[in-house]
Amino acid sequence: MKATLKDVALRAGVSRSAVSRTFTDGASVSAKMRQKVERAARELGYHPNALASSLTTGRTKLIGLISNNFHNPIFLQVFDLFTRGLQERGLRPLLVNLTDETDPEKSVRMVRQYSVDGVIVASSTLSPDFAKAFKEAGIPVVHSFGRHTTSPKVHVVGIDNVECGRMAARELIACGYTDVAFLGGPESATSTQDRYTGFTTEIARHSGIKLRYSFAKAYSFDAGRDEMSRLLTGENTMAQAYFCGDDVLTIGALSALQRAGKKVPDDVGLIGLNDMELARWENIDLSTIHQPISQIVSSSIELVVSMLEEPDRYPEARLFPCRVVRRGTLPRV
Amino acid sequence: MKATLKDVALRAGVSRSAVSRTFTDGASVSAKMRQKVERAARELGYHPNALASSLTTGRTKLIGLISNNFHNPIFLQVFDLFTRGLQERGLRPLLVNLTDETDPEKSVRMVRQYSVDGVIVASSTLSPDFAKAFKEAGIPVVHSFGRHTTSPKVHVVGIDNVECGRMAARELIACGYTDVAFLGGPESATSTQDRYTGFTTEIARHSGIKLRYSFAKAYSFDAGRDEMSRLLTGENTMAQAYFCGDDVLTIGALSALQRAGKKVPDDVGLIGLNDMELARWENIDLSTIHQPISQIVSSSIELVVSMLEEPDRYPEARLFPCRVVRRGTLPRV
DNA sequence: GCCATATTTGCAACCGGTTGCAAAATTGAA
DNA sequence: TTCAATTTTGCAACCGGTTGCAAATATGGC
Questions:
Q1: Which of B52, B71, B251 sits opposite A281 (nearest CB)?
Q2: How far away is chain A from the Cα of B124, in angstroms, using its nearest Cα?
Q3: What b/e readout covers B298-311, taking b as 16+ CB neighbours within 10 angstroms?
Q4: Which chain B positions have a beta carbon within 8 Å of A51's beta carbon?
Q5: Among the listed residues B74, B81, B162, B66, the one whose alpha carbon sits nearest the alpha carbon of residue B123
């Protein structure tokens, strides 16, 4: 069986505390003792049990990584960055998939059992209630890609979706379009609402621009294609350009347009949001708004780590600026 | 602070064992007792600490989910399926990112600390040594998307990559091509080697077919594009059709071809492998070999679960059949 | 070499649970 | 009602560690 602290102590002929101390840094152990213990540990193939020690220290070094975005390729990158960042700090991500989950309490229960030190909710579509539920359960929480509010209840790291909406509007106006539309993600997502707000208010500031909008069922290729198909078959005419909820949605819309024989950007202009890896693939070549994923992730990690020291840290919102990336789905100016 | 077993026992006026028993199913507790305890627990907001109980039971219900594929969109689907499948069985995935990790021992250490009940290595590019290292450390392990060998050391669930290579060859031959090529993933990956073997042996069975091959640096868009660009600029002529290591690689190659003004499938045919979601997007529309991801995942989960009961289960290889999906990158017959 | 001070070590209690065993309570047949 | 068989309950030891405290040892100044 696996060697335990006691086995090592016995073999080294020292007390259990001595063994424990050699494996916790900052503890006082003489060089001679350390040598004896390490020798015995090596011989027995001993490795300390992190879970057992968590009982007394109250620290598990487990971080709940909570998401429901398992269909948007950008989240693979998000998971990559999170797992690596956490690992580098000696933390381990416990992945929780909240697809189809609607009850925040239930998700808290799932995570609390494992007494994680903290939780990162990584989702732009999950209700803020989830993050709030963790906070109320006394678990340090950071909501990545969440909504920024002026008085946040929990830490939020992400982008200013309202501003992104404005940027998209300005970009389309700069292209000379006078008849534009918002093709949003699911209406219930805060990110959709905010992008809508920003887009429409900015358009309203310019006179003589026609504005329409509609919403897709999800942030997914199929939803984008379906919604654009619907727009194409309706009796209503098409806008000149669309600001789509995100990149996959945009690609879906693009697909529907191409199928309908429309040329992009000659007949219709498109701009997305995220700048996922795919977006720069030449056979996709999407104009989009770049979201600084890696800054958001590393800032989220920093924040959750700082909360381990200081659990009642005053909630803050950290927003990172985005920028427009001009590619093939908008006309060259 | 969080309520513990003792608090509940005190409040309910019963022994700690009684409380413990009400929360472990199969234990003998009278209805009256259960009621008393549950009431007290509810009032205190008590939830058992899974990690503490794992100390005595020896079960953590933690499963290490180990991968290094964080750039292939298909793995987002893989993670989705794994996390949901594990959650449904009351297990929690501990995600480990082995990108850039070369030392199996180190990864074992990372996971062992948390005394996971089992490990799933989900990768087609990770050396079999990793899975083996876990086995040797006495941790139940399943290698998903791993190489099938006739005498496997560890459980392997996946596809027969050699057979896939043959299928691709037969498909290209059926299209009437007489000059074909293998554009593989990284040469060190077992999946690449096996696909190569299958492809070349099948081609060899047909006379008069010219065969070439080369390898990309990774299973990624960039690698595919770079390798295809290299082939296009070289003084050597092009093959009529390419079997590419996987779908992202194929899309990269497609991108390079389009940039060079080649028409697909008129000038060059392409077939990939995986049938990722992207592949059926109309603006990509990839011919490919479908890999039954969801069967592979659920079978892997079943296997790892069964090993929890029976750790020394005799290693087996579970292979699932693939099928060709004909789309736009090959000519219609 | 002596003594005050600083460092290292071991004891024992504790973290939040589980479990074998025996005592207590319940059941039911006579 | 009595007593044997069965079920429920509590005691106490244990899982694999950590840590405050006091005893033991080492260090250094004179």
A1: B251
A2: 17
A3: bbbbebbbebbeee
A4: 51, 54-55, 60, 114-115
A5: B66
| 8 Å CB contact between A44 and A7 | yes
Give the SS3 label for residue B236: coil
The structure tokens listed for B54 are 């794992």
- CA dist B95 and A79 (Å) reads 9
Residues 47-66 of chain A sitting with CB below 7 angstroms of strand C? 55-56
**Cβ neighbourhood burial of B67 (10 Å; 0-12, 13-18, 19+):** buried
Q: What value, to the nearest 5°, has the Cα angle with vertex A177 and ends A172 and A182? A: 55
**DSSP classification of residue B178:** S
- Residue B220, classified by CB atoms within 10 Å of its CB into exposed (0-12), middle (13-18) or buried (19+), is buried
pTM of the model: 0.93
Closest approach of A150 to chain B, Cα-based (Å):
30
Number of helices and strands (H, E) in chain B? 12, 12
B70 vs A80: CB contact, 8 Å cut-off?
A: yes
Question: What are B186's two structure tokens?
Answer: 């990284």
- The separation, in Å, between residue B34 CA and nucleotide C27 C1' comes to 19
State pLDDT tens for residues A165-193: 999 999 999 999 999 999 999 999 999 99
The pLDDT assigned to B298 comes to 97
Residues 6+ apart with CB under 8 A from A242: A180, A181, A182, A183, A228, A250, A253, A268, A269, A270, A271
Nucleotides of C under 7 A from a protein CB: 7-12, 14-20
CA dist A152 and B328 (Å) reads 49
Tens of pLDDT, residues B30-49: 999 999 999 999 999 999 99
Compute how many other C-beta atoms are within 10 angstroms of the C-beta atom of residue A277. Answer: 19
**Amino acid B47 CA to nucleotide D22 C1' distance, rounded Å:** 38
The answer to whether the CB of B247 falls within 8 A of the CB of B271 is no
Name residues of chain B where pLDDT drops below 50.
none
- pLDDT at residue A164 above 80? yes
Which residues on chain A are in Cβ contact (under 8 Å) with B70? 76-77, 79-80, 83
